[in-house]
Amino acid sequence: MKLKDVYSKYIETPNTPFDESLEIPNLDEKDILIYETEEDAAGLYIDGPAKNEKSFSHFRLPFVYQISPDGGSFEFEQKQLVESPISYRVGQKCIRELFSYLDRNLEAGGEIELYAGWDDGMGRFDEPRNRSLDLILDISIFELGEQFIWQEKQYILIKKS
Question: Is 92 exposed, middle or buried (0-12, 13-18, 19+ CB in 10 A)?
Answer without folding.
Answer: buried
